[in-house]
Structures are given as structure tokens and as C-alpha cells.
TrEMBL record:
Keywords for this protein: Amino-acid biosynthesis, Aromatic amino acid biosynthesis, ATP-binding, Cytoplasm, Kinase, Magnesium, Metal-binding, Nucleotide-binding, Transferase
EC number of this enzyme: 2.7.1.71
Cofactor, how bound (note): Binds 1 Mg(2+) ion per subunit.
Name of the protein: Shikimate kinase
Binding annotation for Mg(2+): 20
């Protein structure tokens, strides 16, 4: 059924937390727009994120990420999936707070590792000990992710569909007017 979003719903969290999977499922179900910031960065640069990191470095990528996030947030309300590091910049947190509800998809290390271990698309995990890197990023980031408006506890055994249903209920409880039928 088609719905209207009053503000953006901005999904934050680690690589593999399900921002893209759950975000696109919710958007499909409610007929609202879904935007993935990583995909927007890649489209604007006509390069993959790995290529941007390799050629121009992480700092350059982070500046691009803020520009793209700012452009998407200025557009019509959408469900937005951010890259894992986006929420760590205070400037990005301010941009998100000004126009959306931030939702952290909180997921444990073992579940994340199970989901990302096969992927070669995430430059930050191209290390000698990717699981250790993931654990270190979790330690650094979780206190900051915890500043989100809503914390969704992802349950490892749940399907994407079940998680999307539970997340919608939690979003409705946090802000009953955010997602309304057209
Ligand atoms: N309950 C669940 N919630 C979310 N994802 C799940 C769940 N169960 C299985 N998955 C699978 O886990 C993967 C989650 O990856 P996804 O790309 O959505 O994460 P992400 O947060 O967007 O990561 P990235 O920052 O790397 O883009 C998907 O392949 C999805 O199908
Ligand atoms: O966790 C991170 O810092 C990143 C996650 C990805 O979504 C990409 O935005 C990029 O690979 C950086
Ligand atoms: Mg994603």
C-alpha cells in the first residue's frame, strides 16, 4: 500500500547490519522511496567505493559521502541507507538530525562476520585480520551509533521480512505520524 513519509528514515550501522536489505524491504512494502548512499556515491563518481579508496583515499571518500548525504537529505523524504562510517562524523549526525529519524540497526559481531566474510567490496575489511578489524570498529563505533534516535536490536535468526515488520512497529511507536497512508 502506498504511504507518505513525513521525514527521512535514516538507517545507520555496521557493514552487514542489514541497512540495504531491511531498508529496501520496508520501502517496497510501503511504496516509499529508498536511497542507498553508498550506491549514490558510486553512481556520482562512476567508480566503486573500493576504487575511490584506492585512488583518492578515505578522507576524499568521506568528503564525498557528506556531500552526497547532504544532497539526498535535501530531497523528498525517503528511507536512506548510509555507509557504515557516515554516522561517525559529527557534521553528518547534525545533517541527519535536522531532517530525519535516525535508526541504528544494532547487530552482534558473529552475525555481522557471517554476513560480510565473503564480500570483497568493503575496503576497510581488506586487512590481514578482517574479523579483528570488524571487532575494533564495533568497539569504536557502537557508543556513537548509540546516539541514534532509535535503536533496533537485530536478532541473528530473524529473516529480513520479520525484521522489517518489527522495525516498522518500533518506528511507529517512536513516531506515529512518520509513515502515513496516502
Ligand atoms: N534479519 C536480517 N536482517 C538483515 N539482513 C539479513 C537478515 N537475515 C539475513 N540477512 C542478509 O544479510 C545481509 C545484510 O547485508 P546488507 O547489505 O543489507 O547490509 P548493510 O548494512 O547494507 O551493509 P553495507 O554497509 O556493507 O552496505 C543481506 O544479504 C541480507 O539478505
Ligand atoms: O564502515 C565503513 O566505514 C564503510 C562502510 C561501507 O558502507 C562504505 O561506505 C565504505 O566501505 C565504508
Ligand atoms: Mg548496504
Amino acid at each position: 500500500m502506498n504511504h507518505r513519509l513525513k521525514r527521512h528514515i535514516v538507517l545507520i550501522g555496521m557493514m552487514g547490519a542489514g541497512k540495504t536489505a531491511i531498508g529496501s524491504e520496508i520501502a517496497r512494502r510501503y511504496g516509499v522511496r529508498f536511497t542507498d548512499i553508498d550506491a549514490e556515491i558510486e553512481a556520482a563518481a562512476a567508480m566503486t567505493i573500493s576504487e575511490i579508496f584506492d585512488r583518492d583515499g578515505e578522507e576524499f571518500f568521506r568528503r564525498r559521502e557528506t556531500q552526497v548525504l547532504s544532497r539526498i537529505l535535501a530531497g523528498p523524504p525517503a528511507i536512506i541507507s548510509t555507509g557504515g562510517g557516515a554516522w561517525m562524523r559529527p557534521q553528518n549526525r547534525k545533517l541527519i538530525a535536522d531532517s530525519g529519524l535516525s535508526v541504528w540497526l544494532n547487530c552482534d559481531l558473529e552475525t555481522l562476520w557471517h554476513r560480510v566474510r565473503q564480500r570483497s567490496t568493503r575496503p576497510l575489511l581488506k586487512t590481514a585480520d578482517p574479523k579483528g578489524t570488524l571487532a575494533r570498529l564495533i568497539e569504536e563505533r557502537y557508543p556513537v551509533y548509540g546516539l541514534a534516535d532509535l535503536i533496533f536490536h537485530s536478532q541473528g535468526g530473524d529473516s529480513v521480512e520479520a525484521s522489517a515488520t518489527r522495525l516498522i512497529a518500533e518506528i511507529r511507536a517512536a513516531d506515529p505520524d512518520l509513515l502515513e497512508p496516502k
